[in-house]
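Aim 2 progress. For GNAT family N-acetyltransferase, the working sequence is reproduced below.
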Amino acid sequence: MNKNNIQIWDDIYPCEFFEDDINNKRLYVIADDEEIISAFALCDNNAGEAYVEWSEKSSKAMYIDRLGVNVEYSKKGIGQQMLNKAKEITKSIGAEYLRLFVVDINKPAIRLYQKNGFTKVDGVYDEVFDDGYVLREIGYEIKL
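Predicted structure tokens for this construct:
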């Protein structure tokens, strides 16, 4: 991501969330031996959910978060495979929507979500950090 000037992941994020994701059984990983190929968290809420205009707000939804693919495995369909798994899990627990937020400058991720049927919703979630840094995030959703 840094190579593409998308500086949103570092030593703190997403690493600081992994222990909580594991303890709450919401982290999904594809690994080859001891190498992580891809991972995502599937959550029942998101801090930005009230800042955008979701379709059918009262419908049950899950949020995919921290989706990442090891750069050694990029352009091999892993992102699509992970999205399909997230859809499958979300559907199996009775949710009608899979939703997510993506930083507005992360064009590769936006293309992946659009290619896989996610629709952009109106609104923006500006995530403000302690040091005043702001990530502008846009919401996407897919009805299952």
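The two ends are 30 Å apart (CA to CA). This observation will guide construct design in the next reporting period.
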